[in-house]
Structures are given as C-alpha cells and as structure tokens.
TrEMBL record:
Residues 6-210 form the Rad50/SbcC-type AAA domain. GO terms for biological process: double-strand break repair. Transmembrane segments: none annotated. InterPro entries: P-loop_NTPase, Rad50/SbcC_AAA. This is SbcCD-like exonuclease, ATPase subunit. Residues 272-436, 537-578 form a coiled coil. It comes from Arcobacter acticola. Keywords: Coiled coil, Exonuclease, Hydrolase, Nuclease.
Length: 789
C-alpha cells in the first residue's frame, strides 16, 4: 500500500485541506499545534473509521463549523498496483458515521462497518496492528532503550501483539482455577452410593403401598358411582314435584294479581261515576253565567281602545313640547348663521395677503444669502492679506536677524548695499496692504453689516405681520367651518319641525278622557272573579267526554278480567300436587346424598394418601435425577479442565516457538540496517527473548546503554523499523509499503539529525514512502520533498 491523496473537510483544525503524497522520503513540517499529527490520524480514520482516542469523536468537528456541516475525510491509495478511494464522514448533531469504498473508480462497498471489514481483510491488519506497524513516535523510540527491562518487554510485546497471548494464558489459568473450585463444590453436594441405594429402596416400598391404596380407591369409586345413579333417579322424580309446585304457585299468584286488578278497576269505576255526576251539575251552573264572559270581553276591548287613545295623547303632548324647543333652536341658529357669515367674509382677502407676505419673506431670505456670501468672501480676503503681512514681517525680522551679509530671501544673492532697500520695500508692501486693501475691505464689510441689519429688521416686521394675518386667517377658517356645521343643524331643525307638524295634524282627530278609562278598569276588576270562575268551569267541563269514555273502558276491562280470572281458577283446581309425597321424596334424596358425600370423603382421603406417596416418590426420584445431572456437570467440568490444560501446554509451546522466531528476526533486520547505516562499524544487534538489546563492537557483545547518544538513537530507529517489518511479516501484510515517524529528531543537534536522515535514505529502497513529521523548520532542506502545514 502507498498513499496518493488526502482531502479533509471540517476535520479538527482543517476547514478544507488537500495533500498529495509522493514516493520517497517526505518531510511533514509545521509549527507545534499546526495539525501535522492530525494528517495521520485522518489516514487512520479513513481506513478504519476510528479516531486515535474514542472520546475524540466529540471534538472531531472543526470549531468554526456548524452542526449542519459535514466532517469528511477522503483517502486515495494504491494496493498491489490497484487504485482505491475511501470516503468517510460524520453528519448531524450526533455525528452519524458513513463510508464508501471505490476500486478503480467504481463503488465497491457502502457503510462504515462494511468498509472497515473490507480494509482489515485487504491489509490483513486491524487498526491497532496497522498503527503499531506503520507509525512510530520519538517517545516510542527512546522508550526502547530507556525503559526498565520489564516495562520495555511489555511495550514490545504490546507492539507485536504478543500481550494478547499473555492475556489468553492468564484467562486460561483463571478458568482452570474456577473449574477446580467448581468441581470441589459439586463433589461435596453429590450423594454417596449408600444414599443412592437407600433412596431406591424407599421408592420400591412407596410403590407397593401406592398399589394397595390405588386398588382400594377404585372399589370405593365404583360404589360411589352406583349411589350417584340412585341419586339421579330420585332427582328426576323430585324435579317433577318441584315443577308441579311451581306451576300451581304461579297460577295462584296470577289469580291474586287478577283479583287485585279487578278490585282496582271497580274502585276506579265508582270514582269516575261520581266525577261525571259532579260535572253534570257544573254544566247547569255554567249556563246561568254565560252573559258574564261576553260582558268581560266587551270591557276588555274598551279598555284596550282607551289605552291606545292614551298613547296618542302622550305622543301629542311630547310633540308640542318638542316643537316649542325647535322654534327656539330655529331662531337661535338663524342668528348664528348671519353672525358667522359676516365674520368669515374677509377670508379671500386674508389668503391674498398671506401669499404676498410669503413672497416678500422669500425675497429677503435670498438677499441675506447673497450678503452672507459676500461677507464670507471679504473675511477670507482680509485673512489672506493679514497672512501675507505676517509672512513679510517674518522675512523682515529674519533679514534683520541675519544682518547685511545675508542673502536675499527672494533671489538668494547677498544683500550687502541693498539691505536697507529690501527692508524698506518689504515694509512699504505691508503699509500698502494695511492702508489700502485691508481698510477698503473692512469698509465694505461694514456696509454689508448695515444692509444685513436693515434686512433683518424688515424680515422681523414681515414675520410679525405674517403671524397676525395667519392668525386672522385661521380664525376666519374656523368661523367658516362653524358656519357650515350651523347650516346643517338649521336644515335638520327645520326638517324635524315640519315632520312634527304633519304628525300633530294626524293626532288631532283623537280625544282621550282619563275618567272614562278609569271607570272601565274598575268595572273590569269587579267582573274579573266571576270571569275567571267561568273559565275554570269551562276547563273542568272539557273532561266530561274523556271521563265517560274512560268509564266505558273500565266496565269492559272489569268484564274481561273477570272472565280471565274464572279460566285461571279452573286451571288451578285441575293441577294435582301432593305435598306429603314431595317431602318424603326430598328426605330420601337427602339421605342418599349424605351417604354419597361420606363415601366421597373416604375416597378423597385415599387420594390424598396416594398423592402424598406419589410426591414422596417424585421427590426421591428428583433427588436421584438431580444427582445424576450434577455428576454429569462435574464430569463436563473435568473434561473442560483437561482441555484447558492441553491448551495451556500448546500455548506455552507456541509462545516459545514465536519468541524463538520474533527476537532473531528483529535482530536480523536491525543488524543489516545498522551495519549499513554505520558503514560497517557495527555488524550486529542482538535482541534476546526477553527483548534486551545488545550491540556487537569488534566481535564483543555490549549492552546498548554503553554506547553514545547518537548511536543509541540510530539503534532505536533501526530496532523500531525492524519491529514494524516483523509485524508486517507476522500479519502477512507484505504489501504495506510506507512508514511514518512523528518527531523522531527530538532535541538532537544538526550532526545527529543528518545521521538520522542518512539512515532513512539508506532504508528508503525497502519502503516506497517514508514520512517524517517535525516542527523543526530548518531541517526541511534535508528532504527530497516537503509538505508544509
């Protein structure tokens, strides 16, 4: 595998960044915190969908990106001359993962987990193996020689993945210990052979007793069945007696009900006869009061007519009062209109006057603008002349300070005899400017001031007059509005007066007399009691027909119910029921039932004894069955323990064989590289099975700590590369053709840096790509190509 291109979007420090990777030795150079290590973290994420630390998912999105922005990493690489591309991304608030894998620019896999599984299968390495094999840091390099032997052994075993074997071996020991403990515990609760024999004898005895009880219960059950048949025959005879009794009782109840219903109808018949007789008498009384109703109705109509006349009278009085008020309003409104018409007659003249004053005011304003502009120009002219005088006075003073031997400030030639002439000439210019130009300009300024004062005065007078005219015009317009409103009011008053006059003419034909009205009301009050009594009689007499009909229906019902009663009484007498025989048969049934219950109780006691014995047999058998199950479990655990012991032995042999291959292979690779880098000075690096490091110097073996810092750094470097190559060989990932080292220069001087760079140049034939990450900007000249971040 070699890397070709990397593109980052909103990934940690990078908002949008692309990198192209070339073959050979490449330096990734940048200041601390610039995101150098992030590049290889992004490569790891692209391949395996995991960050360096799982908690980093919360901070993987760029700080300036929003929740809607996608975090994405695109990696192009070649594997065995075939181009691949991986696109991974996080989306949304929860950073949901997704991935796509392309081969030869065609979509091959979709899905985060599916893509990771394909990469593991392709490279034959998981994330940890990949990172341990291809990435190394300065801390990791120095730890090879500086750590204590036990710590160094753990670190290298972890790099090589051997700690997993140690973990499995530890798990096997724990499992074996647990199995032994479980076997001991199970053996303690298993039954002895004597216990098993004793329990089996108990089962045989219980089964013999169970057979006796079972046979007895069968005989008892047969006897109970015969009693049940006898009980069934008696029950059938009893049911006939019960049904006959119930039928007779039902008929008797119906007869009583019919008897009570007939009596109720007879009582109602008598009551209806009395009511009909009373109503006939009321009918005669009503005939004597027939004229009361007509007289009362006539009075009611007359009172209603008087009430209508009263309403007309009240309306007429109100209209007369309203007309009186309208006449006053009419006169007052007419006077107001005349007054307002006179007061608003000057409206046109005031508008004309206001326009004239506005025109004068605009003329004054324009004149003042011209005077102000002229005044400003004159002030600027005076300021210019004063500045010129100041400059000339300054030159005169400078010449006086320099003396006769000074140069002319205008032509720069020596003054000498011209000294006095120059000063006189300059002073004459100042005097001319003061007397003529400035004085004349000031006179013009004074004239302009006088003109401005006069215009201001005219403007104030005009403004005062304009204010008075505007005030009069506003008042006049107000009067005109009042005049319009008053005219509208006058029209309404006049219209209302005419309307009222027409209505009064219509009401003149009606006359109302209160005395007549009150007399009619008194007569109605006197007649009201009799009238209400007549109405009650009429209401009462309306029931006559319905009462007579109800009386006829009651007679028919009495006759019908009497016939029904006679028929049911005949049926009741025809029913043959013997109560004495019924009681004798019931007594016989109770005796048979009691005998049955007694024998059933005896049978139930037998069943309880049978169930008890069966329970005892079941309990003993379950104990024996459970003992067999536990014995089988013990045997299974013994078999498992034996298997674990075999695996432990095999794993120990595998570790011994693996160590015998790993350490010599690391030694072989490291020795060849170290000899090449040191140009044959040191021929061999030995790695013991405990991962202690030795360097051979002139045929003698010495611990790595014995050598200089530069030699140790180079030894650490080749050892780490050898470990990476060994890891690749162990995993079968021989097609991985790049290495990356993070800050391997540390704080070394220039000479050692050159040695490390030379070492990498020496091994670059074995790797198509080697990447060195560093924050040292001055070393970038040492690389074939540089990527700055």
């Amino acid at each position: 595998m070699i890397l070709t291109n990397l593109k980052l979007e909103n990934f940690k420090k990078y908002v949008s960044h692309s990198i192209s990777f070339e073959e050979g030795l490449t330096g990734i150079i940048g200041k601390n915190g610039s995101g150098k290590s992030t590049i290889f973290e992004a490569i790891l994420f692209a391949l395996y969908g995991e960050l360096k630390n799982k908690g980093d998912k919360e901070i993987v999105r760029n700080a300036n990106a929003s929740i809607k922005d996608v975090v994405s990493v695109d990696l192009d690489f070649e594997f065995e001359n075939t181009p691949y591309k991986i696109s991974r991304e996080f989306r949304g608030k929860t950073l949901s993962a997704n991935a796509k894998l392309y081969k030869n620019e065609e979509l091959l896999i979709t899905g985060a987990k599916e893509t990771t599984a394909y990469i593991v299968k392709l490279t034959k390495m998981n994330k940890d193996a990949f990172s341990h094999t291809l990435f190394a840091s300065q801390k990791e390099l120095t730890s090879l020689s500086t750590k204590k032997p036990e710590d160094r052994k753990k670190m290298i075993r972890k790099l090589l993945g051997l700690e997993k074997i140690d973990y499995i071996e530890k798990e096997l020991i724990e499992k074996s210990r647990d199995l032994k403990r479980d076997i001991s515990a199970y053996i303690e609760i298993l039954l002895s052979s004597d216990d098993i024999k004793d329990k089996k004898e108990h089962i045989v005895k219980h089964k013999e007793q169970l057979d006796i009880y079972t046979n007895t219960s069968i005989e008892k059950a047969k006897h109970i069945d015969s009693i049940k048949l006898q009980e069934l025959d008696i029950r059938k005879e009893l049911e006939v007696y019960i049904q006959t009794k119930e039928k007779k009782q039902n008929l008797f109840s119906n007869l009583e009900l019919l008897k009570n219903t007939i009596n109720a109808h007879i009582s109602n018949q008598t009551k209806l006869a009395r009511e009909i007789e009373l109503l006939n008498e009321k009918q005669k009384e009503l005939k004597g009061l027939e004229n009361v109703k007509g007289e009362y109705t006539k009075l009611h109509d007359s009172i209603k007519e008087q009430e209508q006349l009263k309403e007309y009278h009240i309306r007429k009085e109100r209209l007369l009062e309203e007309q009186k008020n309208l006449r006053e309003h009419y006169k007052k409104s007419k006077d107001t209109i005349n007054t307002l018409e006179q007061e608003s007659s000057l409206h046109g003249e005031l508008i004309k006057k206001e326009k004239e004053l506005l025109g004068i005011q605009e003329e004054i304003k324009q004149e003042l603008i011209k005077l102000n502009q002229k005044e400003k120009e004159l002030v600027q002219e005076i300021a210019g002349e004063e500045k010129l005088i100041a400059d000339i006075n300054k030159k005169i003073q400078n010449i006086k300070n320099l003396g006769r031997d000074s140069n002319c400030p205008t032509c720069t030639r020596p003054l000498l005899d011209e000294y006095d002439n120059v000063i006189s000439s300059l002073e004459a210019i100042v005097k001319t400017a003061q007397e003529q130009k400035i004085s004349k300009t000031k006179e013009e300024l004074e004239k302009i001031g006088i003109l401005k004062t006069a215009q201001d005065q005219i403007q104030k007078q005009n403004a005062t007059e304009y204010f008075e005219v505007s005030k009069s015009l506003n008042l006049c317009e107000s009067k005109k509005r009042d005049l319009f409103i008053e005219k509208e009011h006058f029209v309404k008053v006049e219209a209302q007066g005419m309307k009222n006059k027409e209505e009064l003419a219509k009401l003149e034909i009606y006359t109302y007399d209160n005395t007549i009205h009150q007399n009619l009301i008194e007569k109605q009050k006197e007649l009201k009691t009799k009238y209400e009594y007549v109405l009650s009689l009429e209401t009462m007499l309306k029931r006559v027909d319905s009462l007579k009909e109800e009386y006829e229906n009651t007679n028919k019902n009495i006759e019908k119910l009497s016939n029904e009663y006679n028929e049911k009484e005949l049926s009741y007498k025809e029913i043959n029921y013997d109560e004495v025989k019924h009681k004798e048969k019931q007594k016989m049934f109770d005796e048979v039932q009691a005998s049955k219950e007694q024998k059933i109780n005896v049978l139930n006691e037998l069943k309880v004894q049978i169930a008890t014995i069966q329970g005892q047999i079941k309990t003993i058998q379950e104990t024996l069955d459970n003992n067999d199950i536990q014995a089988k479990k013990v045997q299974t655990k013994k078999d498992d323990l034996q298997d674990y012991e075999k695996i432990k032995i095999s794993l120990g042999l595998f570790k011994t064989k693996l160590n015998s291959k790993v350490a010599p292979r690391i030694s072989d690779i490291a020795s060849n590289m170290y000899a090449q880098i040191t140009k044959g000075k040191y021929q061999h690096i030995e790695v013991s099975n405990d991962f202690d490091f030795y360097i051979y110097d002139e045929g003698k073996k010495f611990p790595i700590e014995r050598f200089s810092g530069g030699e140790i750094d180079l030894a650490n470097l080749v050892l780490r590369i050898a470990i990476s190559k060994t890891l690749s060989e162990l995993s079968g990932a021989s097609s991985i053709e790049f290495l990356a080292f993070d800050e391997v220069f540390g704080s070394q001087d220039e000479a050692r840096r050159m040695e490390i760079i030379e070492a990498f140049h020496t091994i670059k034939e074995q790797y198509r790509q080697i990447f060195l990450i560093s924050h040292e900007m001055e070393i970038k000249e040492m690389f074939e190509r540089v990527v700055e971040v």
